Amino acid sequence: MKIIAIIGARPQFIKHFPFEKACEDRLNLKTIHTGQHYDENMSAVFFKQLGMRKPDYMLNVGSDNHGVQTAKMMVQIEEILLEEKPNGVVVYGDTNSTLAGAIVASKLHIPVFHIEAGLRSFNKKMPEEVNRVLTDHVSSRLFTPSKIASANLEKEGLVEGVYEVGDIMKDLVIYVEENKLLKSFKAENYYYATLHRPYNTDDSSRLRYVLDSLNGLSKKVIFPIHPRTKNNMNAFDLNIEKFKNIEFISPQSYIDNLSYLIHSDGLITDSGGMQKEAYWLNKKCVTLRTETEWVETLIGGNNILLFEDLSCLEKELLKVNLSWDNNLYGDGNASNKIVNEILRD
Ligand code: UD1
């Protein structure tokens, strides 16, 4: 059985690793990297550090407006799928690379297998929400991380081919912990922060407000800076020198990022994946958004949403007596369950 997986953005390289491992000796897996992310530390570093195979196809699409970027991917993916004639196409999550792969494959009548199906923020202004809804509706098999995600699909009439397998990112966190791959740092008190969503970074006064809030915390903030955020800080004349309490570092590899997180006193983020990683590593998380698709992390206050008024940021980070559900988003065996299901035909 031949399967083609489509990846392109940083979180997809992470999700692809456990899937690639689970496919070994079981099915013929080929990979298309769209090139949505292309900087060394946004792409190649993940392949090197995790020992992943080089993609079979590298499209080098790069950054552009959504229409241009997605269309460029579609043209090239279509050519490859026509040539390769796979039995199925795997897409992950909710990026433009996900949508491009799903549209092309479904129109060629190639079954689409969507890993991380059923997530909803119910905010259609997020490009990711549009990408996920459209992808789910053209997918033949929908692999969800939770009951709530499966229920979201049911509400939209999607009941066939839905499998609740848990979250594939949990497979990797468990793998990294079991193999003791996390690095140790000198003991130091700091918060860890990441920021890349357009609504936090594309508007100069919003970006300044968030950075000022981080700058005013009582502990140092370590902040790996996403290229979108860095470009916008330059454009808005927000010089890093103005934020003495923030240590800006370059985007981190997978293991280094988790290592920074586990040694921190809490996470401030607008990332989807990092809300879950913080939960699994038992770290308090404050999410700078008005909603999250990972609603289960909010139960018990382990993760909290803050957006308009950030004055209580530190009070939230310092909250204690949190209890963690070790089974949140499955048992860490999602990738094997997905491959078993794909092979069941
Ligand atoms: C994308 C995904 C988002 C995901 C995020 C993870 C979409 C719509 N968004 O957002 O869901 O959470 O990836 O990081 O697919 N850039 C570089 N070098 C790179 C990549 C990007 O400099 O290697 C800069 C470019 O200026 C680019 C900007 O970052 O225009 C944004 O990149 P893009 O891939 O469009 O979106 P992300 O914000 O990374």
Task: Describe this entry's structure for a reader.
The protein is an alpha/beta fold. The protein has 2 domains: 2-167 and 330-342, Glycogen Phosphorylase B (Rossmann fold), CATH 3.40.50; 190-317, Glycogen Phosphorylase B (Rossmann fold). It has 14 helices and 13 strands. The chain has helices spanning 10-23, 44-50, 66-84, 96-107, 127-137, 147-155, 168-178, 198-201, 204-215, 227-235, 254-262, 273-280, 313-317, 334-342, and strands at 2-7, 28-33, 57-58, 88-92, 112-115, 141-144, 162-164, 190-194, 220-224, 246-249, 267-269, 285-287, 303-305. A 7-stranded parallel β-sheet has the order 3-2-1-4-5-6-7, with helices on both faces. It has a 6-stranded parallel β-sheet with strand order 10-9-8-11-12-13. Strand 5, helix 5 (127-137) and strand 6 (141-144) form a beta-alpha-beta unit. Helix 3 packs across helix 4. The longest helix has 19 residues, at 66-84. The chain is globular and about 55 Å long. Residues 9-11, 36-39, 42, 63, 94-96, 127-128, 196, 227-228, 231 line the site of uridine-diphosphate-N-acetylglucosamine.
